[in-house]
Amino acid sequence: MDAVVILVLGVSCLLLLSLWRQSSGRGKLPPGPAPLPLVGNILQIDVRDISKSFASLSKVYGPVFTLYLGMKPSVVLHGYEAVKEALIDFGEDFAGRGSFAVSERVNKGLGILFSNGNTWKEMRRFSIMTLRNFGMGKRSVEDRVQEEARCLVEELRKTNGEPCDPTFLLGCAPCNVICSIIFRKRFDYKDEDFLNLMEKFNENLRLLSLPWMQVCNAFPFIIDYLPGIHNKILKNFAYVKDYVLERVKEHQESLDIDNPLDFIDCFLIKMEQEKHSPQSEFTIASLIATVTDMFGAGTETTSTTLRYGLLLLLKHAEVTAKVQEEIERVIGRERTPCMQDRSHMPYTDAVVHEVQRYIDLVPNNLSHAVTRDVKFRGYVLPKGTTVITSLTSVLYDDKEFPHPEKFDPGHFLDDSGNFKKSDYFMPFSTGKRMCAGEGLARMELFLFLTTILQNFKLKPLVDPKDIDTTPITSGFGHVPPSYQLCFLPL
Fold first, then answer.
1. Where on this chain does heme bind (predicted)?
2. Which residues are annotated as a binding site for heme?
3. CA–CA distance from 284 to each of 117, 119, 267, 287, 449 (Å)?
4. Annotated binding site: which residue ranges?
5. What is the pTM of this model?
């Protein structure tokens, strides 16, 4: 009986503590649905499609509202004005990274994607500077992308026009580009290590987008104490980190301080320069976390966009025909596409932008956190408050993009057929924590897609009207359904 009484008292105390914590700060935070003890609002949203729940809640509570995903409050920003105001106008105040339970277990606050404070500032500054030194946004990186595009075309030719699933081939190309920058090497498309890495990245994006992982993020103790797919994700990340560690050891043995050849060399040199500084952020653990972040982010997001893009082009044959006509007129069949061509190819440029807008790859962005107590739109957000910015609400704004649920390159064309920029185009986020590899990703998407369409006719295996472009998961990311097509040489 004593044990039962203690258990009841313990649960009651937890419930009272939960209610007190949830109510104590609500006078400062934006309005939102009343949370339940312990679980918060998790039962009031659809974890299979959180963006849809956010849209519904914004109609009731406005563009800024509070949700409790578990016992901690998160402030949701819905719509262009709120997102822009926070991430650009209040950029420094909203530059923190919110908690992401799996990442905290993997990188322990290190790296570039999920780090905070001085760690994040140092890693981002160093990474951007080093990437620029190795030609990011310059001709040297463009040469690498063009060469990889040619290799991709040769691999696609080997399919001999037979039905194939493009997933791994479209993953290999961007992965090889980032590998050449980080590891100064590229892989053969049949390399076993390469294919294993591709499989881990692809599987993790799919698993991270399942409803279960949204629950794990709200209740992090699940990851430490319960079985589930989160353990598979952690195992995949461990595999990638072990691979990166082996490459780092090779670089330590071959390092020439006077002649750095890639990102890892530059990081090791920085480590040597700061080895006597106890506050240095440049450690082996930090190197592995940063390279793992760059490796994954530089591979999976671009390859998924390419895969989704081809699916959309299969469904919309009239769009594909217009792109190929523009390629024929501006580039021809013999010359390799280059970035200078983009300014003369407004329709193709619009198609690439519309692919990114339509697929809405990371619908709710990586969560942010405020770096100090912030007064925002009449509310007070205490330091550390998690902030979720709905990119879906920006990319699918029906005033900026008429009929946003339709795939229409006209969203990025003016009445004269010229390319039209939009401030609402935020697939890479915006502000202080926007994607550091945006320039490379945009280059890859344009060059890979134009090179593929320059060389092949895309043939679907079913009637285009029967092609379903609905993502199979809508959590962390929008993952396209599996499909096959034929690449018919032109």
1. 435
2. 435
3. 19, 14, 9, 5, 37
4. 435
5. 0.91
